[in-house]
Amino acid sequence: MRRVSGLLAVLALALLVQRATSGAEAGGSVALAIGFALIASVLVGSLTERLALPRVTGYLLLGLICGPFGLNLITAPMARELGLFNGLAVALIAFIAGLEINVARLRPQLRRISALGLATLGVMYATLLPLIWLAWPWLPIAPEVTAFERIAFALVVTVIVISFSPTVTIAVIAENRARGPLTELTLAVVILTDLVLILAFTLAMQLAAWASGDGARGQDVGLGIHVMWEILGSFAFGAALGALFALYLRAIAREVTLVLLGLCVVLTGAGHYLAFEPLLAALAAGLVVENIAPPSGDALKRAVERGALPVLVIFFAAAGASLQLDALADLGVIALAIALLRGITMWLGSAAGRAWIGDRSLEARWLWMGLVPQAGVSIGLAVIVAAQYPGWGTRLQTLIVSLIAIHQVIGPVLFRAALARAGEIGRMDIELTSESGRSGRSGEVEEVEVKST
Amino acid sequence: MDYRETGGVDQLDVNLREAAAPPRLRAIDFLLRTRVALGLQPVTAPAVLFVPLGFVLGPQVLGLLPRTVITHLDPAVTVALAAIGIFIGMGLETGDRENRRLLGAASVQAFLTILTVASATLWLMSQWGLRLDLAAGIVAAVMGIAASVSSASAPDRLGETHRLITRIAEFDDVVSVVAGAIAVAAVGAAGIEHGLLRLGEVVAAGLLAGLAGWLLFERAHSIAERGVFVIGALALIGGAAEYVNGSPLLAGMVAGICWKRLPGRADLIIRNDVSRFQHPLVVLLLVVAGALVEVTPLAIWLLAPFVVFRLAGKVIGAWAASWVVPSLRAGDLAAYLLAPGLLGIGLALNFVQVSSTEVAAAVASAVALGTLASEVLALLAAPGRDRER
Fold first, then answer.
1. pLDDT tier at B113 (50, 70, 90 boundaries)?
2. Nearest to A171 by CA among A438, A419, A436
3. Of A274, A231, A316, A253, whose CA–CA distance to A443 is shortest?
């Protein structure tokens, strides 16, 4: 009751300031949007949890309801400003992904992960590419292009349609405190396949540039070097920062939450200036910390728990507020058809992978449910296409946004359902408690006790 | 230096008292103490360190903090102002007779300082014939209000005199925050009624955010969730005030008073959780203030009267306050209250947030530079230990 009253007080405050100020006078406030999104999303998230839905869905719904297409408590400029958190959120999420991948633990399963991932990708690509090529004249992208150009563009579109979301996968895992075989398998497959897809996208873009006559030979070489710099440089940079962070954890290990968020800001900022991919750099940093210099004690885990929640809440509330419902209304049927095909081919691909290696495990059967979410990587790739091809690229971006809107709603629900079936929800806390009990130290300042009801 | 403005001693330092750095790193142990890094020990105020740093990093010198980055940091500045307001509100204890007397003395000295600096600056501006794109009365009032704050800096003083003066310095923030909120509400207001309405909205926002925090902090399901509520409440307080072009300091103060007065442990929770990021916020505030400093002719014109009239205002205010608290010598009171702390800079930044004019930028620059000069004056004028005893 008190939590509901708190939510009402927050809503009353948001309505008060909005009613009090006319549109011309209001300066808008990012801080207000952050405060409102944080408190209201957490409260709505706990309500959706009671309905056996993921909290992430609650954050998205809150953003959608209070965003520009709903109550307009989070106005369009405020939603855009909240988008500034995307970089930080993506870096933090990728870092957590790296922390979750223990190479030594996964090594015995490497063949299985590769087989399931590559079979899923292969079936999806082999099915969706011809379908997209055949349906091209009816797709609202570039119906006028023909011949080889059409094949090249279809290759680009297919990669983006297939792409997965490590962001949402990690967010659902972190938010549900999940741990277990399905968690590990899904995470490893999503990251591995997205790496392959990023490479495939780079090649497809070169082909598209060549087919449309934009890519002179010299530029192709430049693009190749740029891609190498982006991939290898990002990994090297992230690994170096990860090593420094691991050193800090071992030698000092204080105020870890702040230092962790600072690390993510550096990864994002340096990525922007040095043309690195923050996702890859942060992933490499997490991998180094987990696999080369794992910290003793649970200071890092607690810092991740503390730092991740506010960042993820803002990220998803902003994503909800930014969902373009008008685009969904225009392209809804086409997007829905593509989403359906994507889901079916995903299920078929994962089944093919299981049959290939004879895997009858439950986690392999439910793997496809964890691959459905789509978010940051897809939109990032679409933005690159729109920047290079302002005409059809922009139309593609609108279609991808509609597709993401559908997958943002369905994806987390499906993945959480799979985690619940596998009995992996909340297992991270159980292991954390037992580890703390064994080590006998908390590594953090004593807290004012939390009184739960 | 008392730690009121920054919410108390840093948790990190509390830990370090018990456990120093690992043996291999003992040589750099002092660097880990954030109070040292902030310049809070031994006598240097953080402003002396971080305002010049911000100026060097800012667009005027190295350009490492360009205007676009400063604009993006604005929400953090708003949250920092709200946090300072909250601590001022939670520090407002008027339960016993002594506190009420000290509040009276603090109000008298702050009011007289505002009056001295504002009227003298207004007179000077009319003599100079400056052409301003803002009402001269508002400019003079903001200068006076920013000059009225004090922090009674002196970490090694433990005597009764310093204790009383520290309380007076704490209480004079209340007058400055309220006066600052009135001045900010007056900027761009269509009339007195509109200005009062804006002020009322800020107070209502503080009350509602305070109520929301009180309802939620103790009902969090985990420490991480409680952290989200605390950060959310801070952002909500600052953001709501910013949205109506009001003062986050006043909204924060109102919320702080709510949490202190309402039953439960909301005040303890906010103090505990905000202590985790209070110092980075203070550093950010000061660095941004430094980066915004523009050495323009108008800023230079305003700087000298700010320092000189503030000195005069503090002496007059201290003399009047010593009548209210007879156990205090007017000289000691004036000497201690010379140290301005960071609230004046916060008030000036709030002024820039609501009025993006050249005059507002010049006022903020003059206040930031004047704060540094006043800190140096305070260092020279601080009473000796023997005299205090």
1. confident
2. A419
3. A253
Contact check, Cβ <8 Å, A16/B15: no
Other residues' Cβ atoms within 10 Å of the Cβ of residue A435: 12
Q: Residue A102 has which token pair?
A: 């223990």
pLDDT digits 0-9 by tens, A336-390: 899 999 999 999 999 999 898 888 888 888 888 988 888 767 776 777 777 778 7
Angle CA B96–B98–B100, to nearest 5 = 70
Residues from chain B that touch A9, judged by Cβ atoms under 8 A, are 208-209, 211-212, 215
Sign of the Cα torsion A245, A249, A251, A254 reads positive
In 3D space, the residue among A233, A236, A210 whose CA is nearest the CA of residue A148 turns out to be A210
Considering CB atoms only, which of B22, B223, B245 is closest to A450? B223
From the list A25, A38, A453, which residue is nearest B228 (CB)?
A38
Q: For residue B323, what are its two tokens?
A: 């009548």
List, for residues A309-334, the tens digit of each pLDDT value. Answer: 888 888 878 877 876 677 667 777 88
pTM: 0.76
Amino acid at B306: F
* Identity of the residue in B226, B243, B269 whose CB atom sits nearest the CB atom of A32: B243
Q: How far is B231 from chain A (nearest CA, A)?
A: 7
Q: Is A25 exposed, middle or buried (0-12, 13-18, 19+ CB in 10 A)?
A: middle
Token pair for A1: 């009751």
- Burial per residue of B81-117, b for 16 or more beta-carbon CB atoms within 10 angstroms, e otherwise: bbbbbbbbbbbbeeeeeeeebbbbbbbbbbbbbbbbb
A-chain CB neighbours of B74 within 8 Å are 30
Could you tell me how far CA A345 lies from the centroid of its own chain? 21
Cβ of residue B377 closer than 8 Å to a chain A Cβ = no
Nearest CA in chain A to B20: A252
Question: Residues in chain A, how many?
Answer: 453
Is the Cβ pair B236, A32 closer than 8 Å? Answer: yes
Determine the CATH number of domain B4-388. 1.20.1530
**Domains within chain A, CATH numbers bracketed:** 85-435 (1.20.1530.20)
Residue in chain A nearest B231 by alpha carbon: A35
Distance CA B271, CA B90 (A): 9
Q: Which residue of B has its CA nearest to A37?
A: B232
Cα(A113)–Cα(A101) distance, integer angstroms:
12
Q: Which of A193, A192, A57, A65 is nearest to A121 (CA)?
A: A193
Domain parsing of chain B, residue ranges: 4-388
- Terminal Cα distance for chain A, rounded: 10
pLDDT digits (tens, 9 = 90+) for B117-140: 888 888 888 877 766 666 778 888
User: Which among B217, B243, B355 is the top mutation candidate for probing chain A, defined by the most A β-carbons within 10 Å of its own β-carbon?
Assistant: B243
